[in-house]
Structures are given as structure tokens and as C-alpha cells.
Design a protein that fits this description.
Elements (H helix, E strand, L loop, with lengths): L1 H21 L7 H21 L3 H24 L1 H15 L5 E5 L3 E6 L5 E5 L14 H12 L3 H14 L1 H6 L15 H7 L8 H15 L7 H18 L1
Antiparallel strand pairs: 1-2, 2-3
Helix pairs in contact: 1-2, 8-10, 9-10
Length: 243
């Protein structure tokens, strides 16, 4: 009899869960997830109690409480260090996977904030659709000469890529001299892309993004003077928009 009642109770709770949370197939809110978890947990406890296995749960709870009491003083003692590690993880997790982009008329350069790796998708010329990392050194030289005849900004960004990613093979290759000319100004949209931010970012977001990029792209860290100048200019432009 008791098992029959249990089956009815499980069926009733299952129907309620289906009607309230699963039937409409909409994403559950946080509050709904909590309610659903409590209902499933309560049903599980009832099932364990009826089948005579509730003692297993209470034994596990007791073991967890004993372990918590044993390690509680240790946790309190090292709480500042643990909190520091947690904050560091949160701060780093917020920027994981973030990239910056510099658009030129000939290619779009992308910088990975975590690794400092640079690469670009070529949008003009005979190598259109390919990435710089896919080009042989001879092809890279040809594309460099193509950029020299088209756009000074593209030449400078390309030189930054060469200096950071392929300087050894570039220096060993013949006819690898570089020429640059002209100055270019950074637009507001480009400034957002350079720092890897979106319009609406706060002043602190801009400062943090600038600091993070300069730690990777400063000339003393293997970056280029040109990109460092672009990053500084982007910071200046964006700070003026939020002042």
C-alpha cells in the first residue's frame, strides 16, 4: 500500500514539474530553477525514506559536517589568501578570450589579449581571404610590397605583426627592408576595437583594457612603437567620451 501511495506521489509531483516548468520549453529563471531543484530534492528524500535508505543520506551529511568542523580553522587561517586567489580568478575570467581588432583598408588585424598572439585576415589583393599566418615568407614580402603601394597604416600594422610574430624568418629573408610614410588618426569606432571594448564601457574598463594591452604590446615587451602609440591614442580618445 505504501509503495502504491509513493508511486502516486511521484506521478503527481512529476506532472506538476512538467506542467509548471517543462511543458512550455522556455528557459527557466533562477528562481524557477531553485524551486525545481527543491521539488526534485524533496521527492528524492521521500523516495529514500520510503525505501529505507534515508540513513545513507544522513550518514553522508554527518561526514560532511565532521570534515567541515575539522578544516574550518584552516580555512579561517588562510581565508585572505583564498579570497585573493578567488578575486584573481574572477578578474582573469572576465577577460578570458577577449580580443582587439585594428581595421585597415587591406586587412583586419586581431590581437588576443591572453596570449598576445597577432594574426590578420586579408581583405584586398591576390591573398584576399587568407590569414597572414598562412603566408610563406615570400608571400608575406609580396603582400608587404602591395601594402606599401596602397596604405601607410596597413604597412605599419603589418610591420607590427612581422616584428612580433615572424621577425626571425623576415630578417633571414632577402629584400626584407621596410619603408613607411604618413600619419593616420584613430577614429572613435577604431578606438573601441583597438581596446577590445564596446560603447558604454566605463572609465575603469578603458584604463584596465589599456593596461592589459600595454603589458603585452609595449616595445620593451616585444611589441612595436606604432601599435603602442595606437593603443595610447585609443585610450585618450575613449576617455574623452566618458569624461
Amino acid at each position: 500500500m505504501s509503495r502504491f501511495i509513493l508511486i502516486l506521489a511521484i506521478a503527481a509531483v512529476g506532472y506538476i514539474i512538467y506542467s509548471l516548468y517543462l511543458k512550455n520549453r522556455k528557459p527557466l529563471s533562477k528562481q524557477q530553477m531553485i524551486k525545481l531543484g527543491l521539488m526534485v530534492g524533496g521527492l528524492f528524500l521521500i523516495l529514500m525514506a520510503v525505501t529505507g535508505r534515508a540513513s545513507i543520506i544522513f550518514a553522508a551529511i554527518g561526514a560532511l559536517m565532521t570534515a567541515a568542523m575539522r578544516y574550518f580553522p584552516l580555512i579561517v587561517r588562510h581565508w585572505p589568501q583564498l579570497r585573493g586567489l578567488y578575486n584573481k580568478h574572477i578578474n582573469s575570467g572576465g577577460t578570458a578570450g577577449r580580443t582587439s581588432k585594428v581595421n585597415t583598408p587591406l586587412f583586419v588585424m586581431t590581437l588576443d589579449h591572453d596570449s598576445g598572439h597577432m594574426d590578420a585576415e586579408i581583405t584586398e589583393g591576390s591573398f584576399s581571404g587568407r590569414h597572414l599566418s598562412e603566408l610563406s615568407i615570400d608571400e608575406l614580402q609580396r603582400f608587404y610590397r602591395f601594402c606599401q603601394t596602397r596604405d601607410a597604416q596597413a604597412v605599419r600594422v603589418l610591420e607590427s605583426y612581422i616584428q612580433r610574430e615572424r621577425i626571425a624568418e623576415w630578417q633571414d629573408a632577402p629584400n626584407s627592408g621596410s619603408q613607411t610614410a604618413g600619419n593616420d588618426k584613430t577614429s572613435l569606432d577604431e578606438a573601441w576595437e583597438i581596446l577590445g571594448l564596446q560603447p558604454g564601457a566605463t572609465k575603469q574598463d578603458i584604463i584596465d583594457a589599456h593596461r592589459r594591452l600595454m603589458s603585452r604590446m609595449h616595445p620593451d615587451k616585444g611589441g612595436s612603437n606604432y601599435l603602442a602609440a595606437k593603443i595610447n591614442e585609443a585610450k585618450k580618445i575613449l576617455l574623452q567620451t566618458v569624461a
